[in-house]
Structure prediction request, 512 residues.
Amino acid sequence: MEKPGHVLDRDAQWTALVRFLERGGQPLRIGLVSGRRRHGKSFLLRALCDVAGGLYITAVQEEGTRAAQHRFCAAIARHAGLPESAVRLDDWEQILTTALQVVARRAEAGGAPLLVIDEFPYLLTHSPQLPSLLQHLYDSSQADRAPGGRLILCGSAMSVMHELLSGTKPLRGRAVLDMRLGPFSHRQAAALWGIDDPQLAFQLHAVLGGAPGYRQLVQDDPPAGIDGFGDWVVDNLFDIDLGLFTRNETEYLLREDPRITNRVVYYEVLSAVAAGATTPSKIGGLIGRERTALAHILDVLLSSGYLRREDDLLRQRKPTITVADPIIRFNQLITVPYTDLLERREGQQVWQAAAPTFASQILGPHFEELARDWVRLHAADEAGITAGAVGTTDIHDTEGRAKHELDVVALTPGDKPRTPTARIALLGEAKATVRRRGVEDLERLERIRTVLDSQGHASADAALALFSQHGFTAPLREAAVRRDDVHLIDLAALYGRNDHQLGSHDALRHGT
Prediction:
């Protein structure tokens, strides 16, 4: 089953879905697809149903049992080529059995016996027995007492979707596919938006991330260059009448998780983390709550994918907490503090006032994230550096009486993080400041490499990478040309837009 041309990237996911359809024989097989809203789950599964001839049904929020059953019956009838009134059932087991029988008959003429139920968590609010019914159908199908086929359950409430397969839940051990659809990478997002300017692509990604669903929600296409970006933000993200006003979008995202009821405290936690509070103690100190009172709130935000917990790659210490979703970070740092002005239509004033925050607390951290992503996704092909685990670390230089925070660390493939003898493949520093990176930045990395090697981390052969939004000084470029262990990566290199041949070590070392 060939992926349709209108489906951008998602090659690995498409291959996994096709394998799910084509393998495993006739008995019923169950798969789960989850991911936060706007990541393109429905788009991908609709395309799969179109190619496979499957039946796609979506649940509706706040719809009662009877209305949901009527809509499912109507969809089954249409798929069978019958009038919508031809199927009238009021029992979920009969409805699911009939749906699987219909898709099986349609598949006899070509395609696959595929049934997709989108936004499955909405059904559980009024029909919590559905997982148990699906367990019964699955078990009966293995004994050839119920129809087979392929069933995919999809949902944006990630905590609910992940709970389906946990512990002693009915579907535990019965799903062969558990796909968690993430956002596009920064390069994929640039292609989606049709942006050639790396500066513009970077700043747009720092605000909206790689959620492909935002492409259809914006009122205006992105500007031709970075000079028009501020006006575009004001017109598309600061307009309180538009659907993509970031406060509305953040509320919409938080509403997806049924565990989030008192959104005020969740807003406070998100704002604290966006402002730089990276531990429960620091978060509690900023919002005036005890650390122990935040445990459940943090667990919800982490499991929902709105926060990210990251361990130090080399040291045994408490993990740091960061905001995982760029549009939430932008909302908490820019939109929320200036809500009064935005409601008075003072978007231009807000953009000017928030410029320092945007540069230091949004562009800075986001550039570091993209640097780590480049190491994960592109360093092997474009710099000859094969990396295993990638993350950050703090280094204590006792001899130099200094502490170094390292933005990018990559271990050799197969080495386990936080072990004393871990081999290091790459050490890097990423800066989005206006100042160009110079020889002193390279010397700092060399010092860190020496310190780590003296501490037993086998870093003597580690590559050194400097990432800079605004380029490098001439002396640094000249020094890099003479060395095979030094790589200079600017925005053009991050986005694969070098004038030189991509993957050329000379091009990367020059930072062109």
User: Anything to note?
Assistant: Confidence is low (pLDDT under 50) at residues 499-512. The first helix runs from residue 11 to 22.
